[in-house]
Amino acid sequence: MTSFKKTLIIILFTLLSFITVITVKADMFPKPTLQIKVYYEKERELAVDLLIKGTLNNREPRESDFIDIDFYNYLKERDFNNYYSASLYQGAPYGIVVEEKEGYYLINLTYLYPKKAKLLILDKDNNSVFISDDFSQKAFDALMEITLPSDYLNNEYNDITIVKENLKLVEANNWRLGIQNLILRIALTFILEVVILIFFLYRQKRSYLLVGLTNLITQSLLSLALFIIVYIKGDFSYLFYFITLELAVIILESFFYSKTLKEHSKKRAIIYAIVANIVSIVIGFLLPFSFK
Q: In DSSP terms, which residues pair with 49 in a beta bridge?
């Protein structure tokens, strides 16, 4: 067995171990994020979900780790004026994480959440429900705000009751998060590709500078392209474009490295480009993170 084949085996086992034991939440592939701030007058216990337009048509609800049993039973088989629960009936999974802050709740939406929906908020302290107006996400890293009316706080309902609909969701700029995620993603991808470069037995300083600069350019252009796609499309189409663009990156980097990484053979440079990009994509999907 050649030393190069041994190196590839070492890479495989190292990456498998890395995926198994790592505890840091990290996500290197660019994807849209949405945060919603819910303002209130005093501390409440809230549960939230998204509602998407359509009819149930005898669909079976699926289990959700983000919804407790009472909220689940309320949402199950319930139609909200031709809207229904995204958590229970949407085809692709997504997650909702609610954090209590000083003066507001912060809702973080992760994975394949719908970009066109309504927000449903349940106040578990008095069984009152609030539903926002329609929103359509355009920014890649979006931030929206909503304020719960104060006149409902003293009311008590035996059953879960809708008390207010069409609450206004106000979109705010979230450029800080977008820039932060871009920088972090480039840094993590660079670290991973450099580690793989070491395993491929590249040692010259020029090789590392070349990979670093190439990674900076391709990741920046990839993110910019996906920002534009999400702004124009505002739905799941970014996944299709992401895969298409990543394939283009693999082809371009394979060609570029075959011409410029001269320490070893062209074949090794091409294999490196393919392995580095595929590993980045796979780990990006397997290690979900959220830097909020």
A: 120
